[in-house]
Amino acid sequence: MREKLANIKKKENEIKINHKKIILVLTLTLLISCGFESSDKSNDYSTTKTKVENLKLNKENKYGWAVVGMIRNESSSSIKGFVKIKFLNSNKDIVYSTMARVNDGDYFGPGQAASFDYHAAPSKFDGVTEFLVEFVEK
User: CB atoms < 10 A from the CB of 53, how many?
Assistant: First the structure.
């Protein structure tokens, strides 16, 4: 009878040890994953420094069309740069891309908006259903 009690207590201790190991592993996993998540978030965190405004395609001239718009500086310092313009077809394929200077390449201040424009023959826009504009700071 004592042997049975000893075996039962031994099994109970093994179960307790296994539970402790499982809890330890789960706790470590949770801590590690939380640590990775928070470090990823801090590395990926970025503020939007600019905003595209008044974007339109001007088709008024039959010899040349223009993509025009403005970039609003939402940072706390002066910036300068250019825009990348990507022309997409109905399948979202990039059929043409180009660059255009913003504010003629000069700096523009915090809170200020600066214009850009790109002119091309209407044939450049064949099959284009939309375009994307992205500011690139120099």
Answer: 11
pLDDT, tens digit, 9 for 90 and up, residues 1-60: 777 677 777 777 777 676 666 665 556 555 555 544 433 333 333 347 899 999 998 888
Q: How far apart are CA 21 and CA 31, in angstroms?
A: 15
**How many domains does the chain divide into?**
2
CB atoms within 10 A of CB 117: 13
In the sheet that holds 113-120, the strands lie side by side as 50-58, 65-73, 113-120
Bridge partners of residue 116, in order along the sequence: 69
Phi/psi for 112 (5° steps) reads: -85, 150
CATH number at residue 103: 2.60.40.10
Query: Same structural domain for residues 13 and 35?
Result: yes
Clarify whether residues 74 and 127 are in a common domain: yes
Please list, in sequence order, all residues whose beta carbon lies within 8 angstroms of the beta carbon of residue 107, skipping any fewer than 6 positions away.
78, 79, 80
pTM, rounded to two decimals: 0.62
> For the chain, percent helix, then strand, then coil, each to nearest 5?
35, 40, 25
Q: Are residues 77 and 124 in the same domain?
A: yes
